[in-house]
Amino acid sequence: MSSADIDIAAFRSSLIAEVNEARTGSSAALPDFSENIFTDICTSWLSEVAVTENPEVCHFERSFGTTTARSNGYAVSDDETIIDVFVACFGGSEHLGSIPPEDVRRASRQARTFLEKARGDLLNSLDPAAADYGMVERVKHTKEMAEKYRIIILTDSRCSLTAIEADEIGGIALSFEVIDIERLYRLVQAGLPRDEIFVDFTDYVQDGLSCLHAPEISADYDAYLALIPGEILYQLYDRYGPRLLEKNVRSFLQARGKVNRGIRDTLRARPDRFLAYNNGIVATVDEIEVRYDRETGARHITRVRGLQIVNGGQTTASIHRARREDKVDLSSVYVPAKISLIDARRIDEIVPAISLYANSQNNIQMADFSANDPYHVEISRLSAQVWCPGEQTRWFYERTRGEYEVEKSRTAKTPAQVRRFNERTPRQRKFDKVELAKFLLSWDQRPDKVSLGGQKCFAWFMQDLSETHSKGWLPDESYYRRTIAKAILYKQAVSITRKEAFPAYRAQIATYVVAYLSHRTGRQIDLDGIWKAQDVSADLVQLMREWSYEIRDAIIESSNGKNVTEWCKKADCWKVIRRLELALPSTLPPEVGGTKTSSEKNRNDNPDLTPTELDAMHRCQGVSAQDWIAISQWGAETGHLKDWQSGIAATLSGYAARDWIKAPSPKQAKRALEILQIAEAEGAPFGNNGTA
């Protein structure tokens, strides 16, 4: 077995172990659960390297006469023009093997049948409360906007079938992509999705791109200056999409989600001035072919491999949108480009640096989205040094993909060492940067952002982190311990949705349960106690379990017929859920009312909270900032409120304006209820009797 085969086999073993771990505690009643977990892991990775956008896992299989329709998930691009359907061929065997090409073709036919039926009347025969209803509804809804369908076949085996002939459905192009374990390894473990981007510029321009070669000033890179016709840039982005953009640039565009209006206006009104107005793009390549004409001294870039745009994502996306949506003529549009060939040994060092410095003119800190950001480096260091109580086990932060297995192979050479590594650093205590974002955003009451999906959730988290913490701030040991406590809460919510075998929206229910727990308790949960126990009490598990059903029902009901998965991504969905008056037990779980993080500046001096106090806090947070301001002003003007009461109302208006990042204390909540009672009794001019 070659070294490459050994690496692929190790990668697959890790993947199978992750699938098996995720099955722990899950209901066997769920159909093809291992296959769906495999799809979930793979599509999350593919989203990270921009092969797909917004993946959702959902199983569907049904016979229609002699044909079968099958799907394990779908994805819809942000602009709803590209629809992906995933179908898995998962073996799960102990050893790496090969899958017969006919099995892959059969899976592709089944996925195609699903796509045909979903575009038709399949929706009419499905239960609106089931997960497959949401999937079929989304595919059907996008039928009019769709410009491209892709069926992506995922397998944990090797496949000799590398291509399936393209087709069409309803006049819309349909392509097939086979992602076997070897290609998955290249895309994910090697971290080089750019390897698959090969551009032959002679396909677009007879001689290639005319260029200037910069003097050889460094052994680390070689630079060229060129003008790229706007039509070529459009076609490249149309083919490769976000894969064309270096990861940091993709993350920024996801976090902001706005197309530069100035660029678009120039393309519409004065495309001939685009070159004069636009700063151009900065790109890197892994390989480059340049044709040199000795007679004229002219140079032309003919071919490149590994093309990545590290600055100019807005320009590229804007040109694509203007051409596709506004039908702008790009014949007079040219984009200045600096193209750098990077020494392969220095790619990981130089490319992120180019991304950062090339964008510094716009005050965009691209390094915030990198695994090498100081925040992530520090979390990684803390995970290696901070042991769980008892000093027998620790959590493992996988800052870069595959780091867990690398660490195991580096430190565990014998079977005994491997066993000891697994005992000290169990796989179920491994977490990566996307999971970290989900833990923390759920606790910070942003389930709508968590519901956006892995990469967008992470991008939003990093953007928020850079805006809420001072420059140079780094997490300390206390922050890390409480982060792990939040991870334990989140994982418990996920476990509940699996054990209860919710037929749909399990991921959304989990994040909303954690967010509601944080909200309903005013974030007054004993995180230090959870860290010490490395678990939560049976009472808290029971409370979260009861709430999960009510939250599930409220999400579906409040969607009012909209796609539930999409509804969960909206801030309005969270507003509905946090207004729920879910029952509290007469005796609260022991974690409620415990210690708080000092960084949250919301410390509770009286940890012995009661259900009555929590209800009062919840009522306070149901009043809008505008209403608290109105009550404060009314009380001061009429004299119905004392000065200190008007002051409390004004203070609470500030809390509400900041979306209750800081919750009222029990004492504030008690006084606030008295203020609301006075305001209601005296007919104060505010909202619906104090409710938001």
Automatic annotation (TrEMBL):
Signal peptide: none
Region (Disordered): 588-611
Pfam families: AIPR, AIPR_N
Occurrences of domain Abortive phage infection protein C-terminal (ranges): 245-557
Coiled-coil ranges (or none): none
Residues annotated as domain Abortive infection phage resistance protein N-terminal: 38-186
Protein name, as recorded: AIPR protein
Organism of origin: Litoreibacter roseus
